[in-house]
Fold this protein.
Amino acid sequence: MIARFLALVLFIQEDSSELERYREAERATEAALLALEASYSQREAALEAWRDAEDAAGTPLVTYLLTELRQKLPTIEGIRRKHQADGVIGARRARREEQDLLGGIIDQALLRRSLSDPELRKAISYRIAKAAVGKLERDDFPDRLRGSLAGMLIDPIPFHELWNTVLVRQVSEAKEYRARYNEFIAAGVERDRSRHPEFYEPGGHRVRPGMVFIPGGNYVVGPNRGIERRKRRVSLRPYLIDQYEVTNADYSTFLETLDVEARLENAPRFWEPDSQGKLYPGEERWDHPVSGIHWGQAAAYAQWAGKRLPTEDEWEVACRGKEPWDYPWGEDYRQGLCNDLSLSLSDTVPVAHYPYGKSPFQVFQMAGNVEEWTASREDGDVLERLDSSISPMVLRGGHFLSPPENVGSLFRWIAPGGSTREPTIGFRCAADLD
């Protein structure tokens, strides 16, 4: 009890720290967004003023820039000769030096032409210099120069289009906003990972939707009741397991991908035809676990979903974690945390019910509701497909008609995998890490 209390205190402290980092990042992002909005208005006004000044100028900007740039041709030739002996690497260095030189010349020229905003000058200078590198002496350079000014001064486009296509990649406030926004997203992910580690693989990648991460390592399983099995230590690789049992809706999606013959072959035993003759589970049962399917049908669904059935050991570890608990929630049975005989419902419930009964790894309904197929045969062999219709396959978890002692982590049962299609049997899937 003391250990649980201390763990809760540490969780609250850690969560408070993560929350403060998240809120700080949120405030910084909001401030950066306000600065970006102000920058947008400032640049829009500066560009309009510059366009007006150019309309009144005596010498066209293209002519003015062409004269300024071509005066530097001897200097550019010197840069090229300096790096000529260095081959490809030298050519790259020459291009960088030439672009830097031209960018500075253009920046000063634009300042003299009444473009006072330094961010706009930087963006436009970069655009023109990039177009001019290696082409300044060519006959078609004036046309290239006009092309680099298209949208800004020549055939001007609305400012919001110019902003989105050119300026937003250059303006410092936009760069600052992207940096703060990325920090905000990272803080949110870190907080989510701290609160819900089961949804993240090592390295921070989020797991497949609807699944949780189970760490690899050594675990104790057993001793099991029912079909008895001794207590022992197992070593498992990291894996994923469905957070919820496979629902009727999930299984229906699978059936829709099959041809008519295969659909009938894989249909659950208790589904009825609707008015159009299409099999379905009944009204208001789409979020209930699918049941009445044999092991081969469960395995077929898992393969279609790009998953597999969990082994018996994987199932038990996902149910109890590293604790020697009889039930997903703890050592002692508590009525109302799972759908078993004590509730007298005599039917399944939606798979997301009983959140307080979930396992240490946040897996739902591992006690009661429906008993679940595993990939393990009674003798411990793990099967990908049945070697016989009467192969004794292991079922775990108990179901809605099971007494309290037969639900949860330790009760173990078997049934012929190829023929058992009871309303009390369903399944969930597992998957290996990519």
Observations:
- DSSP finds twelve helices and twelve strands in the chain.
- Residues 239 and 434 are 10 Å apart (CA to CA).
- Residues 211-432 form a domain with the paralog of FGE (formylglycine-generating enzyme) fold (CATH 3.90.1580.10).
